[in-house]
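Human: Can I borrow your eye for a moment on a structure tokenisation matter? Separate attempts, laid side by side, tell us more than any discussion would. Could you pick a protein and write out its sequence and tokenised fold? No explanation is needed for now; the record alone will do.

Assistant:
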Amino acid sequence: MALAPVVRDDFSAPFFEGTAAGKLLLRYSPSSGEWSEPAARFCSVTQADDLEWRESSGAGTLVSWTIKPGRTKDEVTTPDVVIGIVELAEGPWLSLWLPEVDQSALAIGAGVRVDFLRPEGSEHLPVARLS
């Protein structure tokens, strides 16, 4: 799948520094002990504004998924694209691409691990792989 380049800004810079080092950083609120998704500006549970970046375990489970069928153009067929909704061990849900996944192995509750890919001209991006 060809991914559009993703470029960091000031807010996302710590997240992409983490992905470049093979770490998935989430937002964590020390006052509430709750985790939020990387784009959160406030705690998604309590609305606390004391979020800081913390490393996630990278473990999770598959909640759901969708398959975008591949297509043929100019006699070249692109593969299906599988996007999963992953519940991380820390609680937040992320939508992640599952590259090169065996679709027959997809199941609700299947274990996943976060991995990272770097498309040309882009930051390192998190993806999910069945574990």
